[in-house]
Amino acid sequence: MGPGHLAIGLAVKYVAPKVPVGVLLLATEAIDILCVGVFVPLGIEHASSDPSLVSISWSHGLFMSAIWSVMAALLAARIYRNYRTGTVIGLVVFSHWVLDFISHPMGLGHPLPPDLPLLFEGSPKVGLGLYNYSFGVALATELGLLILGVLIYIRAVKKERLFRV
Q1: Which of 81, 87, 90, 132 has a 20 to 30 A CA-CA distance from 24?
Q2: Could you tell me if 27 and 13 are in contact, meaning their C-beta atoms sit under 8 angstroms apart?
């Protein structure tokens, strides 16, 4: 759910005006960055077109997503010296799992079994599978979220400029 993830980062600018939008967008994709940029290249996780071979518990499992979110929150609180900012960034990181829970598995009209582990490999897997049923509805949902995120972002930027004058 790429555009949906980015929509969250844009919309959150409204409640975290001092955080650069790039940081918020990076936070929305942190889970995928860990998966594709770290765990798959190291062989810790496995991506495949065959759903039975996919292993993403270290990045996309509910438990580890919560751990990554807490770590991001603590790091951001330290960097920004503000626990509220840290909490917001941690929640943005965790929003990735929430949106993936709605969209996964990504069957693109061909139903697949759930693929988001609750804990580690071998634990139950979940996912509502928005992309399993109708690619058109899923795409419209993503684009709708992105448009909404952009509109909220524009409002946040206008509000920020208003208070600077």
Answers
A1: 132
A2: no
Q: How many CB atoms lie within 10 A of CB 31?
A: 26
Q: Taking 80 as the threshold, does the pLDDT of residue 42 lie above it?
A: yes
Q: Buried b / exposed e across 116-148, counting CB within 10 Å, b at 16+?
A: bbeeeeeeebbbebbbbeeeeebeebbeebbee
Selection from 18, 120, 17 nearest residue 79 by Cα: 18
Predicted local confidence at residue 162, as pLDDT = 61
Structural domain boundaries, residue 28: 2-164
The answer to whether the Cα torsion of 78, 82, 84, 88 is positive or negative is negative
Look at residue 117 and give its three-state secondary structure.
strand
Q: Give me the sign of the Cα torsion angle 122, 130, 99, 35.
A: positive
Alpha-carbon gap, residue 22 to 124, rounded angstroms: 34
Helix, strand or coil for residue 46?
A: strand
